Amino acid sequence: MARRAGLWLGSLVLTALLLEGGARLVLAAMGSAGAPIRVGWEPGEGRTASVRDLVYVPDPDTFFRLAPNLDVGRTANPRIFDLRTDSRGLRGPEPTRPKPADTLRVVAVGDSCTFGSGAPQNGTYPAQLETRLAAERPFRVEVLNAGVPGFTSFQALRLLEVEGFALEPDAVVFASGVNDASPATAGSKRRFGSQLLSDREYADALRRNRRLGITRLLWRAGLGLGGGAAAASAPGGVKRRVSPADYEANLDTFVAESRRHGALPVIVVWPLRSQAGPDGSQSEVERVVRLYQDTARAVARRTDAPLVDLVEALRGREALFIDSVHLGPEGYGLVAERVAEALLAGWPAPEARIRSTFQWSGNFLAVAEKNPSPRSSPRPLPQYRQQHPLPKRSGPFPSEEAARSRWSAS
């Protein structure tokens, strides 16, 4: 009996080894089509190699992201210039860590429109948003630009989950949708040959690279994708980087996770230039993008999340666009204005936290002994004053009366 069981087990192991060996031979015979799908690219490969190799780095969670500690004046892409990133690869100065208790922090995530393609460092909408908010509130405001050109909602959500929420935001502004609607083909930063892979499938393929050859072969044969059916049911019969259903799920997750981390979620609907013009005709691209825009509006209504709908805000303002989707600094300023309105209307919770942490005392905000925020530890007043000494002056601050007025009105 024991001998029979041993023979059966041995034959099973031998069969598995033969199948695995055969699968690996088939994958090898497929050449580049059978090579493992990996994150990254070969330096110098492709039409956009100079910009890609300079500005981006591969990332296992988001496929690619901005390189850290960049200081770039010009690139071969005329829309990417005056670019400086911090140690995390965010466009802007290094944020204060840990977040000071007297600070309202916003994290803006999205694609090249959030990144600010076509604008200098201080002309992006997150940079202008920080300036606007700082002028409206008598305490410190930080807006961190976590936009990356080429990102979809899948990647923006992953960046939030991996790093964004650890930055302790009081609000998160989520602007994504145009890249979600683009075809699921490979690109200079998403390298997987001639297959059609959505972002979710690409992430799944990266996980499968660590699996057996037989499972990789079966997956490539289509057993794990159902690619034909997916394309047939996709908008316009074309498989998209993020399907409408996945886009809705990503937005739902964004709203729920933001609230779970104590942050106000704000959804932005970004228009195409063609939607700003007087022409009522719609191209196929616009029809598909409208589907994603309508999905974002529906999620905002259903979850009661603040919505910044830029389609109407930019109606009749085609001149603010520099191409089919990107704005210039003036257009990004309008975006900052509308986002600021949404944030100021929905910010009672973090402002109440700051008021309970700091008490208005004549010419400065004195640190109170009570600090209810679970994310910030209280700092004694002497220690705070060593780090933030009061300026030497005679008479009141020039802006004190305005600050008092804003405080009372809010």
Present the secondary structure layout.
Elements: H1 2-29, H2 49-55, E1 56-59, E2 63-66, E3 71-74, E4 81-84, E5 103-110, H3 112-115, H4 125-136, E6 140-147, H5 153-162, E7 171-175, H6 199-208, H7 213-220, H8 227-233, H9 244-260, E8 264-269, H10 273-276, H11 284-303, E9 307-309, H12 310-313, H13 329-345, H14 348-357, E10 358-361, E11 364-367, H15 381-387, H16 400-409
Parallel strand pairs: 5-6, 5-7, 7-8, 8-9
Antiparallel strand pairs: 1-2, 3-4, 10-11
What does this protein structure show overall?
The structure is a single chain. The protein is an alpha/beta fold and 410 residues long. Among the domains are: 60-176 and 242-346, Rossmann fold (3-Layer(aba) Sandwich), CATH 3.40.50; 350-409, no CATH class. 43% of the residues lie in helices and 13% in strands. It is built from 16 helices and eleven strands. It has a five-stranded parallel beta sheet with strand order 6-5-7-8-9, sandwiched between helices. The radius of gyration is 25 Å and the shape is globular. The N and C termini lie far apart (83 Å). Residues 26-35, 223-229 and 359-410 have low confidence and may be disordered.
Second rung of CATH, namely the architecture of one domain: 3-Layer(aba) Sandwich
Low-confidence runs: 26-35, 223-229, 359-410
Beta-strand residue percentage: 5-15%
Helix content: 40-55%
Find the CATH superfamily of one domain.
SGNH hydrolase
Describe what is shown at a glance.
The chain is α/β, with parallel strands linked by helices and 410 residues long.
Question: Features of this protein?
Answer:
Rossmann fold, two-stranded antiparallel sheet, 410 residues, disordered C terminus, globular
